[in-house]
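Running this now, will post back.
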Amino acid sequence: MATIPTQNPVPSEAAVDLKFNAGKIDEFVTSFLLKYTDRLGRDHLTIEGMRDIVERAIKEFGWTTMDSFEIGATLTNSSEALRWQMNGEYYRWDGSFPKVVPSGSTPETTGGIGIGAWVGIGDASLRSDLISSSGGPIVNINKVTASPQGNLSQAINWVTPEQFGAIGDGTVHPLSERYATLAAAQAVYPHVTSLSQTIDWAACQAADKYSRLYAVVKSPRTAIYHLGSNYLELSIKSKWDSGFATSNNAGDCPRFTRNIESTLPAFGQYCIVRVQNAGAAGSADEFVRGIMFKGYCLTYGLPNRSASKGSQRICLHMNYGHGAELDVAVKGGEYGVFGYSFWGSKGQLVIDSCHKAFYADPKTITPENLTPPSNTNTSFDFYVKIDACPFGLVLRACHYSIFNGFIEGAVIGFANYDSTNETAIAITAIDSTGIGGNIGIEAWQGAHIYNSQSTTDFSISLAQSHNISNTTGKNGPWYSMSLLNGAAQLFTLPAGNNALYYSVNRGRSTIRNVDGDFSGAPFDAAYLCYQDVNSKTLFANTRMYTGSIRNLSPANWANVDVINDFYLESLFIPGGGTGHKYSGKGVCVAYDYSLSAIAADGTVTITPPVGWRILSAEAHVIVSTSGQASSAAVGIKTKAADGSSITFQTGISATGYSILYRLTLLITK
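Update: finished.
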């Protein structure tokens, strides 16, 4: 202002002050500034400043909402907001009041949108932006600090099958429910080949392909994806992790299922999830790497313990999926987890009601793998929960691997246990080395371990609710495969009574910590162990009570060793008594001397108990005077090569003399 005010006290009637105040009145009324300064230098609100405070107060307190542009309304003050039904947004009027809005209006037809007209106060526009394909970058997840910066799009590192259209209600929904033509379906899912394929399969496969490049796939806990007659194919860097604890119980974690086929697909194609062949995956060798599959259940939807032998159903086909991270539950297949060479894989496996629970064999020919490369499996590290599967761990050419957990539920009468023709085996190892772990076995009417040309070392915790039977058959876990490939199965159990632990073909089997009662039926006929002449079995730190039953093994007892088991040690002592000390490897030594009379020719012949041979012996003539001692020398006259006898020669020619002898014996049963 040109007028310079005075500092006269208020009120002032000086002409110059009146002129100055006239200009301030105009500034108070018409200025867009929020404040003006009086002649004494103090700030005051303008009308615009007052309006700003009121509107901010109204906004903080809330709006009076009204319906609607379509219906028509009259707004009388700036606290009222009118809804536009078409987008759900509320608008305030930024002009003069009252504001009359005729029915059938829009913001554009009643003044436009912007300053001085309609101004949106809701979130409809923001929501519209957020649900668009470019909505992620709108949300900044960090303030500008020294911390890493980013937006929501950069922070989202997982997707769900539902984002790709999955339904997940456990029902078959063919693509024809959503698409009129195959071309329309292929525009969304290029990998589909028929409108009869399911929406869930198409969506899950699309999610998997996306995950290989960008993200982890997650799922709602209660989702059940029905794949129809297809399987989910995993490839290089496929990543699935639901985040839920794995279980075969409905509702505990998301599930995959598929049709029970009336016509068998080609072997290896009848599965729920399968690792892609290396060539199709673009791998430089036979292996597919980088797979993670965790927190899902794969089920055929059949009742517990349903017959599956010969069905060719596979729950999880690991193929050549090297180094996979797994946490999966499976149920209802002939094979729970099946694979050729998926070495280096680790995790947790919950396997229920399959015929072969965990089958890892890179050597045996199958109809889909007629010329398997020269591979092995190594460095498995799995925690297993195996229930109602007659063959638990089935391993061939497997090395330095660990399995912990439990194997249970092979009971005669279960539909998936063909006990007439086969004997259940908890752990089978063929041509394998360095296989071990801690395994609980319960409700098991079969063998615990079959070891052929392998080295195994397992701690067994036995819940002895059921025992082995001598009525079960001799087939093993390769019987079904032998029917498919036309070759003889890798083994059948030896003829005769069954045994808990088998070691054959130069096998070396260590069994630790077994605690049980083996003093009654069926162990009056069945054996604790069976080992051929070239194989060894070691029981260490066990407590296996046998009572008066001495059915350790049908033969080759000398190939059985015992460490720290009072009951089993007694089986290696003649009569099971206390007259000998067991020193290991089938050898025992008498604690004290035995008496035997010297014959007229000065000889004494000693024979061992039945079932033992003499390894060594010591003998002394009993004398009572120093004169007798001078002629009391004892030598060995003869010793049978088979240890069946030893004859001592003394210098005594008179009758009435005896020797004291002590034998070291080796068991020959």
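The radius of gyration is 43 Å. More later if anyone needs it.
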